[in-house]
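Entry 14. Structure prediction run on the chain below.
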Amino acid sequence: MDDREGLRRVSSPREVLEQGTRLAVPRSVAPVPVSEDVRPKFSDRDVRLLSKRLLYMDNHVLVLDKPPGLATQGGTGVKLSLVELAGAAFPPSAPGQGPPRLVHRLDKETSGVMVMARSSPAAAALGALLRDKSHAAVAGTPDVVPVLKRYWALVQRPPQLHGALVQTGVVAMPLAPATGRDRQGGVCVAPRGAGNPAVSTFRVVASSLCGLTWLELEPLTGRKHQLRVHCAGVLSSPILGDPRYGTACPPSAAHLSPLLHLHARLVVMPHPIIEGEELRAVAELPAHMAQTWRTLGWGDHHQLHE
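Output returned:
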């Protein structure tokens, strides 16, 4: 005890103090080093770049244009994720808000419209809406739930069903986790009666002279890798640049970007909180797909009706 000041000096971190004891604290305390696991994995520049990809925001909903190559959420081997960046770029700004949270996902290599919730009521309502859409699609009545998610893809060849070329149609084939060491984390078409029901629609928008085909796709259910597997495993039309389900790049595409050509172009759905209001967001093609579209003579794609 320091009798002059009535302060107690603590000599051991295990020392038990009585309530009301006055402590002497050194004028200079060395900062506690921050663990590498706690430090942000992104820079201010990363945050600014994501801020520029904002499509819509209110007190309940955040809609972003996710760039290709950015993981949606953290995990093993993931150094940077959309969830982390969105939390830094769009922090809570009103009572009842929290960090942006996921209500659906896009694959790391896929770009485009990403809807996130900024409040618990919005997260619950959006989750229920997407589940209802999936259940309605499996029941054969997808139109009863007014949710539209439209994707654009470039596939290696025109789609086929049962050996015949087709321009439009519905793929209703269940998906299940793939087996084998080389398919870890992937999915595959499952035998009927097994796996999870998965329903997608497709429409040919245009085809090049070399067979590369622009598809408009809509996943009516929300299974992992659904569009990629339905294109490759059912329509015999792998998406160009697909590192998991694609085949060797055809000579006709050797001059094009090797990145995945799959883009979440449009999302339309009811606002989860504001009754009578519609959410509608359109994301422009990422740079590598826009260049491919120009190369193939589809540079006027912006004029197409959504």
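Residues 120-138 form the longest helix (19 residues).
Filed with the rest of this week's runs.
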